[in-house]
Design a protein that fits this description.
This protein folds into 2 domains: 179 residues, no CATH class; 183 residues, NAD(P)-binding Rossmann-like Domain (Rossmann fold), CATH 3.40.50.720. Helix content is 33%, strand content 23%. The protein has 11 helices and 17 strands. The strands form 4 sheets. The chain has a 7-stranded antiparallel beta sheet, with helices on both faces. A 6-stranded parallel beta sheet has the order 14-13-12-15-16-17, sandwiched between helices. Helix 5 runs antiparallel to helix 11.
Length: 380
């Protein structure tokens, strides 16, 4: 079994450290990619409207030959609904976004996804420790990754989140990538690594609640609700919560088919059926399932309007973690205020130290998680 290796630039380094002039003509290189921003000037790559995807490698950059993209779930849903499920139109719009913006960033959802590919060239001063021939997954968003597609996405039918393709992408010094494990199929690894921040942060938050309760001598079990528990991030978060010491968990899903699949997976103490966009129905489903509001609520759905139900389902003093890119953080904050809810709300930023290793270990060791992932890939 090949050990997963993650490479990351130190987050404590100054964003302006290490600028230099390149002899190969790319220009000034920045560890955070400022030299790749075309417009507007003065913003970081994620906030830019357009990036320069020039394939020439700066001294601290890495060029990856791309073989597959994984579109963010919220972005793919929006595109699919916009075009009524017409895969050709979805494919055409994704191509247009990438060619226009030099990156994959849905202008409606603001989200992108991630990719896998093979390192073609690493600059002599790249701190990522990658070398030509390494097969990697980028653990940074496509919204900040310079990207160019060479094959017109000819092998993609526009009907799944995973996009086979040929092209290249550029990584900056202050990035993170994982060498793909040899024991897992690349498509499976990509699906897991796309959401690996969710279980890691869930585990951290649940462990903190467990420790706090133990210090107080409170024997009550920590309870956790995962909204969208049958999905990729949801199933991993349920498994991570249990590993971190949650006493009881509830997985909330919108339809009977997902309820049945999650019950077969055995990842939740109880599975509840509710529309997460209906705040009263959602909170009622959670409190009925476990007898009271929960200590931790994890939102893993890719639809709008789930904020108020998540807050309402959470006990005062509890924590709500939002992982969906469909989340309105203004709605979450103002909704909690309007409900006089004393809850801590966290935005899952996709990076927690050790997140990739944890997610892949859960996939390997939890048959229920692996079964849900493999069923999803088979359906796509």
């Amino acid at each position: 079994m090949k050990k997963l290796v993650c490479r990351k630039f130190s987050r404590y380094a100054s964003p302006d450290r290490g600028f230099e002039r390149l002899t190969e003509g790319v220009g000034v290189t920045s560890p955070v990619g400022l030299h790749r921003v075309v417009e507007p000037a003065g913003v970081l790559p994620q906030a830019a409207w357009r990036l320069d995807a020039d394939p020439r490698v700066g001294a601290n950059e890495v060029r990856i030959r791309v073989e597959r993209l994984n579109l963010d779930a919220a972005s793919f849903r929006q595109l699919s609904e916009k075009h009524g499920g017409d895969g050709e139109k979805v494919r055409a719009e994704v191509l247009e976004i990438i060619s226009t913006r030099g990156k994959m960033q849905n202008p409606v959802t603001g989200s992108g996804g991630m990719l896998i590919g093979t390192v073609e060239e690493a600059g002599r001063r790249s701190p990522l420790g990658l070398k030509a021939g390494d097969r990697v997954a980028t653990l940074v968003s496509l919204t900040l990754t310079p990207l160019r597609i060479l094959d017109g996405l000819a092998r993609w039918d526009g009907r799944s989140e995973q996009v086979p393709c040929d092209g290249y992408a550029m990584l900056f010094a202050r990035s993170i990538a994982a060498v793909l494990p040899a024991d897992l199929h690349p498509e499976l690894s990509l699906a897991v690594l796309d959401v690996c921040g969710a279980p890691a942060l869930t585990a951290r938050v649940v462990a903190e609640h467990v420790a706090r309760r133990q210090r107080a001598g409170d024997p009550r079990p920590v309870t956790v609700a995962v909204i969208g528990g049958a999905g990729k991030s949801g199933s991993l978060s349920l498994a991570a919560a249990r590993r971190a010491g949650a006493g009881r968990t509830v997985g909330v899903v919108p339809v009977a088919a997902e309820r049945d699949a999650l019950e077969r997976a055995g990842l939740a103490s109880v599975v509840a059926l509710a529309d997460a966009r209906d705040p009263v129905a959602l909170s009622t489903a959670v409190t009925t399932a476990l007898g009271a509001p929960v200590d931790v609520t994890v939102v893993c759905v890719d639809v709008r309007g789930c904020e108020h139900g998540a807050v309402l389902a959470t006990e005062d003093g509890g924590t709500v973690i939002f992982f969906s890119m469909a989340t309105s953080f203004a709605a979450a904050a103002l909704g909690a205020e309007g409900l006089a809810a004393d809850v801590t709300m966290l935005v899952g930023n996709g990076y927690v130290p050790g997140h990739a290793e944890l997610a892949l270990e859960l996939l390997r060791s939890e048959p229920g998680v692996r079964g849900l992932f493999e069923s999803r890939l088979a359906a796509d």
